[in-house]
Amino acid sequence: MTAHPDGLVVGVDAGTTALKVLVVDAATGRPVADAVREYPTRSPEPGAHEQDPADWWEAAVAALRSALDGLDASAVRAVGMSGHMHSLLLIGADDEPVAPAMTWADRRVAEQTRRLGGDPAFRRHTGNDVVDAFTAPKLAWFAERHPDALARARRLVLAKDYLRFRLTGRWATDRTDAAGTLLYDVTTREWRRELWETVGADPALAPEVLRPEEMAGAITTAAAAATGLVMGTPVIAGAGDVPAVVLGSGVVASDQISVNVGTAAQIMGLSPLPDPGAGFVFLSATGESFVTMASLYAAGASIRWAERTLLAGSPIGDAVIQAPAGSAGLTYLPFMFGSTVPIKNDRARAAFIGQEERHGSAHLARAVLEGVAFACADAVKAVVDVVGTPRELRIVGGVTRSAEWCRTFAAAVGPEVDVVRVEGGSARGAVALAAVGAGLWTLGDVSAAAEPPIRPADDVEAAEIVAAYARYREACDRLLR
């Protein structure tokens, strides 16, 4: 068993489709172990995207035990949390969910989104337009559809908050996840009673709000027996996955932008003002700054669809190299769950444009990969409009492991800005918050090593990608309005 004299730090991240545990050496900041466990999503009716929180806990137990296997659990100095934002999870008096959790991808709430979107109080207090992804329209939908279940609820929490309760026995959220509900004022940092009442819910459901780096509790006897962690190990409040990714990717200055491309993609920059621009605004995981974010709901989701449907389960990387840059004129709009940039349109759906008989599965696959890259480039432009031109884009996430995707994205954003890949993400952000909260690191210690800047293979490839990006933007202008 390798010794870690300065201790270990653990990050637990409940993503949209899987939970990840990351263990880091507190002295060096280097990963020591990690583990991932997936959990199912259910769709009992059109537009539904539900998960059972018990599956989150089962995944957390399995991932923690796997990651800690062979390590000295008594060396763990702190545990940090992050998780997918905007879900609706209502907890009853027995500390159990009154219904399955509705995730951010649930799209049954269009009517409620339109109603709440007509109330200027939401934009005034939260800085954001109301869209289907947020918690508030889901709560309004639930209040109308399931009033008896709502009456049994005692609190509303987010994914990481449920797991933290299972670890510590304490119910709370943090300010970043609170802001992501659209029920919390991002300027005064308090719940807004009138917003709760507008959605038809009792403001008493609002949980206690902690700072992301604040100690929320300690591992209980039951949690220790389940996970392998040591009873009494501090657990830090943590943050929603968007602010956690910003921190985890090493973005700590206004001239850097974080590009996280997982199931969804989030492009984020730091701003002193709550200005969403064409995107959204959240609270940062550290300090008093704000995160300006533009997103793509179906990034990795689009690529997984292509692998499953077009490629019979084969990796997309094996297919795209068989088609030329630009996909021979084929364009894909990756809006399976609606669009946010260049236009917010929850009714938008994915489409291939310009398909011809000559296009085969490799062209279709490459068009999907390029469409995701182009949508991310559009999101970068939306964030730049608020925070200014950065010197560096730090890219992270499963999709960024594709060299073809990275070169396509770099060509689309242009040569003026360095695009570098980092090993970060929301689990790394959870680790950083745990280390800061436990007094092991300062914010100045939070960094992530970056690879050399990414460039397209050659000028010819770059020109083809730029031309394809222009076709993509033209298609968006024509079809999204």
TrEMBL record:
Membrane-crossing residue ranges in chain numbering: none
Highest taxon above the source species: Bacteria
Pfam family, one: FGGY_C
InterPro entries the record matches: ATPase_NBD, Carb_kinase_FGGY, FGGY_C, FGGY_Carb_Kinase, FGGY_N
Gene3D superfamilies: 3.30.420.40
Span of domain Carbohydrate kinase FGGY C-terminal: 259-437
Molecular-function annotations in GO: kinase activity
Domain Carbohydrate kinase FGGY N-terminal: 9-248
Alphabetized UniProt keyword annotations: Carbohydrate metabolism, Kinase, Transferase, Xylose metabolism
Family: Belongs to the FGGY kinase family.
The protein's name in its UniProt record: FGGY family carbohydrate kinase
